[in-house]
Specification:
Length: 358
């Protein structure tokens, strides 16, 4: 009998030790995450929050985590779907409790080049401030930070991942925001057909090429044949946005029902101004504008061609086109849309690193 005990005891000790598999022991790991931005200029946002592989991994878990919502039905990805460049196709997104918000969800990519605020009205100065707001928004995830912290603290996969990312298992709003920010900073979209055209490895069709020229050429009321659509005036540069808030003539003064940037700044010159969004992946992100009023790119082009409404805050460049409109004929409108579709980046839309880890 005694002999058997002598043999069994060490086995039991070894088995207990094996429960703490040393391979899975969570330890702090600050291995850097290197952003691969290819031909883009270096990011101009202050990534004070230095990217590490473990923080990015934690951000990915959180982005797809339904525990961030009050009733476990919704994650960030419910409204920000990868196949739609991380936006959704609803005019107004539906929150965890079935409430409908008043604005269209926004696409998320190339965020590391945004340094003038987030949301349609720019009310969140930094991405890590933005990231925890949807959790607490009653028409979005409708949850509280203490409750999220309690849910995550009870889950060993999270306490371990907070240790790997931050060195201990304390879960705070600041750390949740920092991890979500890091994951979103890794969303880089720079491999569209247009990028390959710039690199010399793809050719545009004649229609796409005519569209490209229209997109970048200035409007000229006196020479209709040479006049362009001047989209690059605002959606310019390699990012196809300008990090500004502008009024693109959607409504007359009397019909401003969302005051946009004004709600953040209280400056009357900001009434009905909204963030100039990137046109990359635009084919995949209908409906369009802050209120999702247009369902097709053809409707958007028709708006700029002949639908600009005047108001005191309308951008001067667009105001200058209102006498004649952009004078685009049917073929030119088609060409412009064909060019916009060359901005779709399938590599980004299907990149497994950005998909759900669950
Ligand atoms: C119920 C749908 C919904 C959920 C859930 C949701 N969002 Fe959003 N998101 C939106 C809408 C709508 C906007 C635009 C809101 C506005 O401007 O007022 C937006 C805007 C954003 C933006 C701004 C992008 C820019 O260019 O300024 C980011 C980033 C973002 N969301 C990230 C997140 C993260 C991170 C989560 C999860 C913690 C999340 N969202 C959860 C609907 C949602
Ligand atoms: C004066 C600046 C300006 C010019 C010029 C301009 N846009 Fe815009 N564009 C904006 C702003 C601002 C928004 C967002 C407006 C809103 O939602 O209230 C926008 C939104 C869009 C959207 C919808 C984006 C989304 O995420 O829903 C598309 C598509 C678009 N523009 C295409 C074009 C095209 C094509 C041209 C040229 C014919 C053009 N824009 C010219 C400022 C401009």
């Amino acid at each position: 009998m005694k002999r058997i005990l002598y043999i069994l005891l060490p086995i039991a000790v070894i088995m207990a030790a094996c429960n703490e598999d040393p391979e899975n022991l969570a330890v702090y790991d600050d291995t850097a995450y290197i952003l691969d931005y290819g031909t883009f200029p270096p990011p101009n946002s202050q990534i004070a929050n230095v990217l590490t592989a473990q923080k990015v991994a934690l951000g990915r878990m959180l982005f797809y985590e339904v525990k961030l919502s009050s009733n476990l039905t919704q994650s960030c990805a419910s409204c920000h779907r990868q196949e739609h460049a991380f936006t959704d196709t609803a005019q107004f997104s539906v929150g965890a409790e079935g409430d409908v918000g008043g604005r269209q969800a926004m696409a998320i990519f190339n965020m590391a080049w945004h340094n003038n605020g987030f949301f349609w009205d720019g009310r969140a100065p930094e991405l890590h401030d933005q990231a925890t707001q949807p959790i607490q928004n009653p028409v979005e995830m409708n949850e509280t930070i203490p409750s999220v912290v309690a849910k995550l603290s009870a889950d060993k996969s999270y306490t371990d991942q907070f240790i790997r990312a931050f060195g201990d298992d304390e879960i705070t709003e600041e750390r949740i925001g920092a991890a979500l920010e890091q994951f979103m900073f890794t969303f880089i979209s720079n491999n569209s057909k247009y990028d390959r055209f710039l690199a010399g490895s793809a050719t545009l069709t004649p229609s796409e090429e005519r569209g490209r020229q229209l997109f970048f050429a200035e409007y000229n009321e006196f020479f209709p044949n040479e006049s362009g659509a001047d989209c690059a005036h605002c959606h310019g540069g390699i990012l196809f946005e300008n990090d500004q808030y502008m009024n693109n003539g959607l409504d007359t003064e009397a019909n401003f029902d969302d005051l946009g940037r004004f709600e953040e700044t209280n400056d009357p010159m900001d009434r009905a101004k909204f963030k100039v969004t990137s046109l990359r992946n635009i084919e995949m992100t209908p409906p369009y504008m802050h209120d999702g009023r247009f369902t097709t790119l053809e409707e958007v082009v028709e708006h700029y061609n002949n639908g600009i409404e005047q108001s005191s805050t309308l951008d001067p460049a667009l105001n200058a086109t209102t006498a004649t409109g952009l004078m685009l004929d049917a073929q030119e409108k088609e060409d412009l849309v064909a060019f916009l579709k060359t901005l779709t980046d399938d590599t980004f839309l299907t990149n497994a690193e950005f998909s759900s880890p669950y």
